[in-house]
């Protein structure tokens, strides 16, 4: 972008070249900022579920040969991605792959009773998650507008 001044007696004129380039950059930047705002709001909301699951996750009183005490609880996390194809936000919340047995704890087996921790966390905190998501998104949009 460049500016050129033309001085005419009694009249000053400024020409700005490169506005189309600036407009193109702004159009590129706006979706990226919106994706970032959605991702950050999604992360804040997902953290509520992560904390709730960690509080409810069954923990062995001591490690065994097959399972480490607290591994299930400690593996619980979240990831947030925004699809570039359809702009959908995808939030994954739950135990990591190292706690492959989480489903056995959640639903039980024929030899072991169920110890639900994922479903209650989701069900009991849906409203909180939605409220935090909306609040965080509004805050991020307000910051972008400043």
Brief account:
The protein is α+β, with helices and mostly antiparallel strands and 146 residues long. 52% of the residues lie in helices and 18% in strands.
Please tell me about this protein's structure.
It is a single chain. The chain has 146 residues and is of the alpha+beta class. The chain has one domain (21-145). 52% of the residues lie in helices and 18% in strands. It has helices at residues 19-56, 71-75, 102-107, 118-124, 126-145, and strands at 2-8, 11-17, 77-82, 89-94. The strands form two sheets. It has a two-stranded antiparallel sheet. Strand 1 (2-8) and strand 2 (11-17) form a beta hairpin. The longest helix is centred in the N-terminal third of the chain and has 38 residues, at 19-56. The two termini are 23 Å apart.
Weakly predicted, low-confidence segments: 1-15
Structural class: alpha+beta
- Computed over alpha carbons, the radius of gyration is 25 Å
**What is the string of helix and strand elements?**
EEHHEEHHH
Counted up, domains total 1
Biggest sheet: strands side by side, in what order?
1-2
| Percentage of residues in helical conformation | 40-55%
Mean pLDDT: 83
Write the layout of secondary structure elements.
Elements: E1 2-8, E2 11-17, H1 19-56, H2 71-75, E3 77-82, E4 89-94, H3 102-107, H4 118-124, H5 126-145
Antiparallel strand pairs: 1-2, 3-4
Helix pairs in contact: 1-4, 1-5
